[in-house]
Amino acid sequence: MNRETVIAEALDLLDEAGLDGVSTRQLAKRLGVEQPSLYWYFRTKKDLLAAMAQAAMEPHAHEPLPTPEDDWRAWFLENTRSFRRTLLARRDGARLHAGSTPTADLDRIRHKMAFLVDSGVPERDAQMAMLTAGRFTVGSVLEEQAAAGSGGEPDLPADVPLIDPEAAFEAGLSLIVDGLTPRATAR
Questions:
Q1: pLDDT mean by block of 10 residues, the chain; 187 residues
Q2: Of 56, 75, 96, which residue constitutes the final position of a domain?
Q3: Which domain does 27 fall in, by range?
Q4: Are residues 69 and 159 in the same domain?
Q5: Where are the alpha helices (DSSP H) in the chain?
Q6: Do residues 101 and 175 share a domain?
Q7: pTM (predicted TM-score)
């Protein structure tokens, strides 16, 4: 057993039982070890959850970084879509990610910010756009995963339309980019 095995098994437990079902007791049982042996790898459950969140974000962390030739709008849209896909890939992925600090990803974040600024987006606007898109995405996925976990369609009056989560996400994402576009100067 090693740290990576513990994380992988914890993520499998997350997918099976949801975030509320992830406990060090259940994880130790799955691994066939005594619960205190997990503390060799993670001092607290919070440390375990942080490592799980980082590992769950690996698909997004391996997406190509923007290049100077890229259009910032197209890149921004795809970067945010990639983040959404990654959160949706795990049961309760948004809940697991919410509140985590991307310390392992700081160089990539700096690169993305520099790309936006070099593309003509004012630095403060680039920071706020990345923050807004991230929080919008986490919130959207939280709602989508909560609805999926509730076991069915909500009981709404006939005149209230059902909302397609992907269409709603795309519409909100467009609003973010459309709001940022006039603030950016041409390269």
A1: 95 96 95 93 93 95 95 98 98 93 82 96 96 97 88 73 92 96 81
A2: 56
A3: 3-56
A4: yes
A5: 3-17, 24-31, 45-56, 58-61, 72-88, 93-97, 106-118, 123-149, 165-180
A6: yes
A7: 0.91
